[in-house]
Amino acid sequence: SAREREPWLIATSLPGGAKETKAVLAAYRKRMSIEENFRDTKSEYYGFGLERARSRSTERYSVLLLVNALAIFVAWLFGKAARSEGIDRGYQANTVRSRAVLSCVFLGLRVISRGDIQMTTTKLRQLRAIFRDPELAVAA
């Protein structure tokens, strides 16, 4: 896909032309986004470390997932704010400066932990544009 950072090699048994190819790429893009969200939820390094939750109660785990979803949303907002202000490059390895390599959630967690952005009402208003344009939410 032209907007992806690395070339994809995707094999499918589905017949078809350009329309079907676009549908397969869209499904794969969605799947990769879901996989990254699982990583952000489960991983102690990349996200919130729910893999360490030892609860055996379904109800308690449901509450943990809800709290986690809210925390991921806040971290994502901070990550988007960092990108909009251009401070995300300071968090990346020096070897890659031409494109974003960190997920918004991972970046947001780092920004929050270092206190590099103060979330103001003005910044929240600027970020509202993301919710009006789904392509902006998916990008980055």
From TrEMBL:
The chain crosses the membrane at residues 61-79. InterPro entries: RNaseH-like_sf. Keywords: Membrane, Transmembrane, Transmembrane helix. The keyword Methyltransferase does not apply. Signal peptide: none annotated. This is Transposase DDE domain-containing protein. It comes from Thiohalomonas denitrificans.
